[in-house]
Amino acid sequence: MKTLLSTTAALLIAGTAYAADLGDTSEPIKLAINEWTGQHVTTHVAGEMLKAAGYEVEYVTAGMLNQFQAIADGDITATLEIWSSNVSDDYAKKVEEGTIVEIGDLGLDAKEGLAYPAHVAELCPGLPAWEALKDCAGVFATAETLPMGRLVDYPADWGTPGAERMAGFGLPFKAVPAGSEGALITELRAATEKKSPLFIVFWQPHWAMSAYDVQFVDVPVGTDECFNDASWGPNPDATMDCGFSPTRIFKAAWSGTEEKWPAAYEILSNYQLAVEDAQPMMGAIDVDGGAVEEVVAEWMAANEAKWKPVVDAATK
Amino acid sequence: MTTLDAVDSTPWGLSPKLLAAVVALLTGAICLLLQPYAPWLFAFPAGWTVPATEWVGTTLEVVLNAIKPTMRLFSAAIAYPMEWANIALAGTPWPVVIGTVTAIGWHLGGWRMGLLGFVGFLFVLLSGYWEESMNTLSLVVVSVPLAMILGGLIGLLANEIPRLRAALLVALDAMQTIPTFAYLTPLLLLFGFGPVVGLVASAIYAAPPMARNVILGLERVEPEVKEAGVMSGATRFQQLFLVEIPAASRQIMVGVNQCLMAALSMVIIAAVIGGFDDIGWEVLLTMRKAQFGQAFLAGLVIVTFAIVIDRMSARLALERKRFDARISWGLFAAGVAGAILLWLTGVSAPPEGIFGGVADSVDTALGDFTAANGASLDSVKNNAMFYGLLPLRIGLDEAVLPFTWGFQWTSSMSLWLFVAAGLGGALLALTGRPVAGALLLIAVGILETGIANLPWPFVLVGAAALAWLAQGPRFALVVTALLATILISGLWERALLSLYLSGAAVAACAVVGGALGLLAAISPMAWRVLRPICDMLQTIPLFVFLIPVLMFFQIGEFSAFLAICAYAIVPMIRYTQAGIVSTPPELLEAATASGASQTQTLLDVRLPYATPVILLGLNQTILYAFAMLVIAALIGTTGLGQSIYLALGQADVGLGVSAGAAMAILAFIADRLVQGFAEERRKALGLA
After folding, report:
1. Residue B356: closest C-alpha in chain A
2. Cα–Cα distance between B554 and B549 in angstroms, integer?
3. What residue spans define the domains of chain B?
4. Is 90 exceeded by the pLDDT of residue A245?
């Protein structure tokens, strides 16, 4: 019965002029909702664009690391905010298999680096210059790291960029892996409440950047020369004496998407979202307590010029 | 005949215990002496390990791909009942759901149960998480029957084919101790993305309690009852289903209750995978933002379900009395009437949460507390680290430094320490306690070296010696073989770190939990306070407690230690209390009659009598501590738990399963050791 209905629906749609481009609108396009607010904003904006084009959209909660199997199977159509710094090896495998395709950059300008909540500048004068950290490692020392200072690094499964930087700059800090994003945020919150020292690896766009007034340490820009050539940079004996390699944030979709929903595939491929647009929406949700649907709807209404052309180009 | 009698005659006329202690001691001493010449005794050389995790990975991949199509079919089939349950629960107007729960509560346990159901579900409604909660409940509704069938089948199989029994019991242990995160990647591959994976994971975890209770129940069926069945000419099938299972139904219902609780505790794992907008996902999101109040509120919804389901299913299992069904129908009708009324007034959607303000202020209070007590919290942590955890991990020789203890540890201090310990040991030996003397020396040696730096031959020999004492020579062989597997698979260092962290937590839980249990046994008032706390600690997703622990003590071992203790202390309290309270009245009367004081009765009658039960509690504490290691890895520990997350991130099936298996091996050994000693105590008391 269900197949019969959808066949009829497909026939009806095939009769109209532009709808062939849309593909199978009887079945909802499923977009992955991961664990962080920024991704919710990214995904809801894309979802609303697809709805405007005439699709039915379903938001499916999915663990960031576990979602790729679902996309490979077509259970989820697309995921719209993958960070190159934090993508599971599973993704590469699935792309190689041909079950997942990458569909371009999101255009979100990300930055990662060594960071600290603003009040720490008073505890370690000389910040944000990285050289200041040489002399105030003692300020950041804790029971586990004595006599070295403590750097809260990314969870081990995201890699250990902090530890590599400490070795690169020759700073007397021991990198402690955080274990989870929640643990990183809790560290930031506790340090801000207690006005205690904290040296951490962090990234933007993230709502906590403004909520806890997080500042980046000034370091030389990360380049390939620095990563490969020890003599480059302030420390002549080591690589990695510079910032992080720029993070790419990109989108990926199930490989059958283009065939099934050609217009949606085009919209999702061309979809981009800038930090200036995303970060205020994140703040409106996480700091002011707004609902993601409302915040996104408000932005969509006010910024039609930013998304309408992408939808129109694909459907008309 | 106990295992100890079996190894009674040993060379040189030493008692078995002394022999075991001396062998372990000698191994340790030799390793320490040889340290400068043979560093490989301490750090197992990487060249001797085999790429076992890769082998496991490759083998599993072949197997998984072979059975994948079948499993996908199963996955598709199970998605239907899941969807129906979801439609039924989420689609039913909330007044009807609340009315039904109240009606069931009344039917099972009168007005008290009815009220419990009503208030509990009303709280869920007012929390504002109604829809998410119903999604969670529909997962439980499907996973529990699945777990019951699986557990029931395993139980029957173990009962019918005694030869399979030992193997099945080991399988049950593995199902309970291998952390779910370790096999999440293969499950995703097999069953595809979505709630089915969570369902299968929770069925795997919830089946063992069911199976164990089925086995126990069938074992305890009175021989007369069985004979009556045989005499009336029943076939084995009739005998089983018409006679034995009904006779064992009480015990089996206890299994159902335990199965329900286990399934609920896995809700959070289902959320980690996603695909399902449930209450666990809500906990994860708030946890990620470090919002303690909100995470706690969402966690309390799960606790509420757990308490309502636990109390009602316990009633179902233990009480035969049922209350008037007509009132139940009345309550149900009231729910329907409420729904119609709401529908007529046009407000059928569940209300917004009313506890948002409370959650916010809890959250603010946590922040203020941290801000106000930062310095004292830091000093608590530093003291615990400097004088407790660090020496235990890396030994006095490395932990005692000018900026921790105020002076530098030297090798002459080590020497003096060993001389003092040697004198103490000799004194104990001369006064007739040679075993205690040898143990003292071993303890000092471990403290000086640190658990993470223990030489591997010592760990192998020591564990084997303990195993010999607890269960006999065969078990000693098994233990050695299992530990050697970890050793050559290259996970040894991480395993020692895990052992240290859970060991420290278990020791702390045994002391503090034992004391609290004792207090609860003496004072009913204290038990009334402790019991709901125990209930909550066992059912709330522990992620919730990571936030305050982290706020107070930051990322690191001390926080992980506390998080593990918070969970693992519960069985220690419960079993100690239960063991002491359940001393038979005849024994107490006899003690009173012979003029024993309260304290004497407690120390000489109640405590010895309760020892087997307390040891069982310790056993559970050990298993819980290992189970929490994985969660503790979320706040930055470096043992096997971290390997499991690494494997999850890299979709490395081999590493995940191997690290999970290593954890299960450690838990298995600890479990069997304690069980062996508990059995011995029971025999000594004439209870077995």
Report:
1. A289
2. 7
3. 92-126+293-368, 130-288, 491-688
4. no
